[in-house]
Specification:
By secondary structure, the protein is α+β, with helices and mostly antiparallel strands. It is built from 26 helices and 38 strands. Strands 9-8-5-6-7-16 form a six-stranded mixed sheet, with helices on one face. The chain has a six-stranded mixed sheet with strand order 14-10-11-12-13-15. Helix 22 crosses helix 23. The longest helix has 25 residues.
Length: 1023
């Protein structure tokens, strides 16, 4: 309270003063004896204009949503009118400012090995390794942080790798994997289904930090590998070799808590004495491989890593591209051959070499933190362990740049286990036959390295003596020298034949088909094949070089490489084909009609059956560069071929005068050329199969079957057949392959009673692709209790593989009618396959694995009457209740046509289903009969169709059951007309004798085997 002082001035006024400051607080004038006090003017408050409801939330909105701290700071510091300082949760801020929350370090640690395993897949690599790998997967033990690395060709291989990794480590540590932590990628989904006992922890989408152990390990591997490769100037295609060695080293380096993973996991100290500088010069002892005693005892090589299956170093010999695995190696760790001898590696990508470095180091580095797409147009599969790189197209005459020979691997006679820690474990999607070994110590799935099992048993090299450069690894044991003078083979100069089981020298690039010119150009066989192709094109006047037109489409071209194999799988020849990029052609401008027929499989079996019965010779021809013989009616311009650019006219293009592989119209042009030639020789084209050509010259029948450039010729007169072959040879360049033995993937084997057709090699390739070569055999292709539907289980994670296998199996039915129904059934689920569908496919594959050499047998028979078996499984599909038609047609004793197919409509009764099947069978039967008539093979009696439904046989002969059949489509009744005209006849047969039963439903084992024998599906030696 303020102390005031009242001062009175009589008659005039009174004043109120502040007692301390003497300030006038109030004064009043005296008017007519009264003191009037003048009221102070009222000043309006600013809050009156802003409203009493102005809150901190309103200020937050006015200031365009700053943080709460900033809003309150402004309100307080600048005394902004505010009735409430409470800020509500702003949803707009939450949606607009959302970001990744900070991650806290994990405080949980495993207490024993395999309690928690971290895993992640890296890739695809921007460069495919020499061994064909694009990815790698790592498994990290959380307890010790020990790392295992496996290399992959496809992400889908993760399941197979994990199965082997799990078996190995669980056997080694006598415990099981409790938890697997991944990023939740689709490649890990099958693991959760196959191993439900393992807890599968996944990170949230787009949150790699939750899988930080694996992500950090990727970075660690990449950084050390890039530094190592840059230091030695190693080619980028050796990344898998270096990565495996880097993991080997990382397992022996102290981690952030100063513990060493190897020591923690195996409870023993690592030995660093055997480590050498990667990429340095090395000199492996090669005396056992020398041709004579005067050869040098060692070769100068490049040290590229440690072997996982042997106690030795991997040494690359640059001039020959051989890899030696040896324990007797001396090193010069200050010399780096790839850095000092660049002229020796012209076909290799270099680190630090600007002219050939197509993929910079930064690309590898960036892959640590970013995901690459599943496919990359710049990625090409290599074909060997040879160094692959960028080849500059020659600018002189059409000569291909010389390159190194293919890589071989050699391991010395003395082999022992080097430290086989899991520095490199490899999954190769392609199994090898037992006699083949891959071009490194990468192994196929059936024989993965068991490196984790060997860790506690590691025998490290000793260093009890010194060497001038660096010590070689000593031998495991030293045998005492002999002191007596006994006669030995050495003293007697008698040598026992040497066998080097560890010497791997037969797998070259020729076992693989290169994908690019760069890869093929590194190998002599493919260079010779390309030169032969260019010579053939030049001899055929396929094109002329002209200046590029301004108003025409210029299509590109590329090389396609194929290995032609014999029926036993051995290599016959190497085929390089120059292919035009026809997908750049415009319809109506660069091409018009494109259809070209090929011979039907049924036609092939009919002709072969006829030839076997008549004991005719069956010859096989192959036209060289068939498409090059076709004449083009359109103007087509193409760029010059890679590796064969004319140096005098490098900018010119090829004006094609002949058809070329890859052009849309090439198949049609070639077929027109061939058919014209055959017609000029007296053949006529069949009305029922345009690829069948028939000649009735001089009362002798000659038959030619054409499938693009593969030709089968047979006839009643062998000399006339040889004459036609000579005529064809004068018109085209072709090879006479002699007697028919291998045609369109079908092996034809002569037997005492006829010929046997099988696709054992083709089926082996299918099993190989599905990794089921060593699968347990199944007695039947489909279970009788199988009930498949569209959405009956979890979706299969690799539908592309599913469709590929099904497509291959469909072709396998050409000689395997026993799997026709099963393949037809499973083919109905190709759009969205599930795990149950894949299990059904694997059962078919397991059945084929046990019957791989089975096939149909065509035997000689004097009676060539036609007998047909027809059946239907009424409402056999549980989903749409449609029936399945099955039929098989016999020419004499030989099965020539069969089918299993779902009917297009629902049948109301079993009679209706059988009647529909009868009509479908009748159509195929008439076609076969007309084909035989063209071949002048006549039958004394009408063909017989055997049906096990009495109602269907009655309905086929008479229009009965009208009330129950009036809805059947008219076209199905044409069978009745054929019966009335006595072109065919329908007879009843007991269901127990119905052979077509195997084509309509899954059967029990005994019934299935019985009918398979009637289908003549047998082994060659039982035919």
């Amino acid at each position: 309270m303020t102390t005031c002082k009242l001062v009175m001035v009589p008659v005039y006024l009174f004043i109120i003063l502040d007692h301390h400051t003497k300030m006038v607080l109030l004064e009043a004038s005296c008017i007519n004896g009264l003191y009037y006090i003048q009221a102070l003017p009222q000043i309006a408050s600013p809050q009156a204009y802003l409203g009493i409801r102005t809150t901190a939330q309103v200020w937050h909105d006015r200031l365009c949503h700053p943080s709460n701290f900033i809003t309150l700071q402004l309100v307080k510091d600048y005394s902004l009118p505010c009735s409430s300082f409470t800020l509500d949760t702003c949803h707009n801020c939450l949606m607009a400012k959302s970001h990744r929350l900070p991650f806290v370090s994990s405080s949980s640690f495993s207490s024993f090995p395999l309690e928690l395993v971290h895993s992640d897949v890296w890739g695809p690599s921007p460069i495919v390794s020499n061994n064909g790998f694009r990815y790698y997967v790592i498994f990290i033990d959380d307890f010790s942080r020990f790392t295992w690395i496996y290399f992959l060709k496809n992400k889908s291989d993760v399941l197979h790798v994990f199965q082997r990794f799990k078996a190995q480590v669980e056997n080694l540590f006598e415990t099981t994997i409790k938890t697997l932590r991944t990023d939740g990628g689709t490649e890990y989904k099958p693991i959760a289904n196959v191993f439900p006992q393992i807890i599968h922890q996944t990170s949230c989408p787009y949150t790699p930090q939750q899988n930080g152990v694996s992500e950090r390990k990727h970075r660690h591997i990449i950084e050390l590998a890039l530094a190592t490769m840059s230091n030695a100037n190693l080619p980028s295609s050796f990344w898998d070799e270096i990565f495996s060695s880097i993991v080997y080293i990382i397992n022996r380096l102290p981690s952030h808590n100063s513990t060493i993973p190897y020591n923690t996991l195996f409870n023993k100290e690592p030995d660093y004495s055997s480590l050498r500088v990667l990429g340095c010069a090395c000199f492996p002892y090669t005396r056992p491989y020398n041709a004579n005693k005067l050869d040098l005892h060692a070769l100068k090589c490049v040290f590229i890593g440690y072997s996982t299956t042997q106690k030795g170093y991997r040494c690359l010999h640059i001039p020959t591209n051989k890899i030696y695995v040896s324990r007797h190696v001396q090193f010069d760790e200050l010399s780096f051959p790839f850095k000092t001898s660049p002229s020796q590696i012209d076909s290799v990508d270099h680190y630090g070499s600007p002219q050939n470095q197509s993929i910079p180091l930064s690309v590898f580095r960036s892959m640590v933190v970013q995901d690459f797409p599943e496919s990359n147009q710049h990625i090409h599969e290599p074909v060997s362990a040879s160094c692959a790189g960028s080849i500059v197209a020659p600018t002189t005459q059409p000569i291909i740049t010389p390159a190194h020979p293919p890589v071989h691997i050699a391991s010395p006679q003395v082999s022992a286990q080097l430290d086989t820690s899991p520095a490199r474990h490899v999954f190769n999607e392609t199994d090898r036959t037992p006699t083949r070994v891959s071009s490194s110590d990468h192994t196929y799935p059936g024989n993965l390295p068991t490196a984790p099992n060997s860790e506690p048993l590691i025998s490290q090299p000793d260093n009890n003596h010194t060497a001038s450069i660096s010590d070689p690894l000593p031998s495991i044991s030293h045998q005492p020298s002999s002191t007596h003078q006994m006669i030995t083979r050495t003293r007697d100069n008698t040598r026992k034949p040497r066998h080097f089981p560890d010497f791997v020298a037969h797998l070259t690039t020729t076992d693989h088909e290169p994908r690019t010119f760069t890869q093929a150009n590194t190998h002599t066989e493919w260079r010779q094949a390309m030169s032969a192709e260019i010579d053939a094109l030049a001899a055929n006047n396929t094109w002329i070089l002209v200046p590029p037109p301004s108003n025409q489409t210029i299509i590109g071209c590329k090389w396609v490489y194929r290995i032609k194999r014999r029926s036993d799988g051995t290599i016959d020849r190497y085929k390089a084909r120059l292919v035009a990029k026809g997908y750049n052609q415009q319809e109506g401008v660069d091409y018009f009609d494109t259809f070209s027929p090929v011979v039907r499989p049924t036609t092939i079996r009919v002709v072969l059956s006829l030839a076997v019965s008549k004991k005719w010779p069956i010859r096989q021809l192959d036209v060289n560069n068939a498409f090059l013989h076709g004449d083009l009616a359109e103007q087509v311009f193409m760029s010059q071929s890679p590796g064969f650019i004319d140096s005098t006219r490098p900018n010119h293009v090829c004006l094609l005068s002949k058809s070329l592989y890859g052009l849309k119209q090439s198949p049609r042009a070639w077929f027109y050329k061939l058919s014209s030639t055959l017609i000029s020789l007296g053949f006529f084209e069949s009305q029922y199969d345009p690829s069948l050509f028939i000649s009735h010259s001089h009362n002798h029948l000659t038959i030619i079957l054409v499938y693009v450039d593969d030709i089968i010729i047979t006839g009643s007169n062998p000399s006339l057949v040889s004459s036609y072959i000579a005529h064809l040879h004068s018109s085209f360049s072709l090879k006479d392959l002699g007697d028919l033995h291998f045609f369109l993937g079908i092996q034809i084997t002569k037997t005492p009673t006829g010929i046997h057709l099988n696709q054992s090699k083709y089926i082996y390739d299918i099993l190989h692709k599905a990794n089921m070569i060593h699968a347990k055999h199944s007695p039947t292709p489909m279970s009788t209790s199988s009930s498949l539907s569209k959405d009956d289980s979890t979706p299969f994670d690799n539908p592309q593989l599913f469709r590929s296998i099904i497509g291959a199996l469909q072709y396998a039915t050409l000689t395997r009618p026993d799997i026709t129904f099963a393949v037809n059934k499973i083919s109905q689920f190709m759009q969205n396959p599930t795990l149950n569908h894949w299990a059904a496919v694997k059962r078919i594959l397991r059945f084929l694995c046990g019957t791989i050499r089975h096939g149909i047998h065509l035997q000689a028979a004097s009676n060539l009457d036609i007998n047909v078996y027809c059946d239907a499984d009424w409402a056999g599909c549980p989903v749409d209740r449609r029936s399945t038609t099955g039929f098989c047609i016999y020419l004499g004793k030989n099965l020539v046509s069969w089918s299993a197919k779902k009917q297009p409509t629902v049948s109301r009764s079993s009679t209706e289903a059988e009647y529909r099947a009868l009509a479908i069978t009748c159509a195929e039967l008439l076609w076969v009969r007309y084909l035989l008539q063209e071949l002048r093979v006549m039958s004394s009696t009408p063909p017989t169709i055997w049906c096990d439904n009495i109602g269907a046989t009655f309905l086929a002969s008479n229009p009965i059951f009208h009330a129950r059949t009036k809805h059947i489509e008219i076209d199905y009744h044409f069978c009745r007309e054929r019966i009335i005209n006595k072109e065919i006849q329908v007879r009843f047969i007991s269901s127990s004798d119905q052979i077509a039963d195997v084509l309509t439903k899954p059967l029990a084992i005994s019934r299935f085997n019985l009918l398979c024998n009637k289908l003549t599906v047998v082994l060659p030696h039982t035919a």
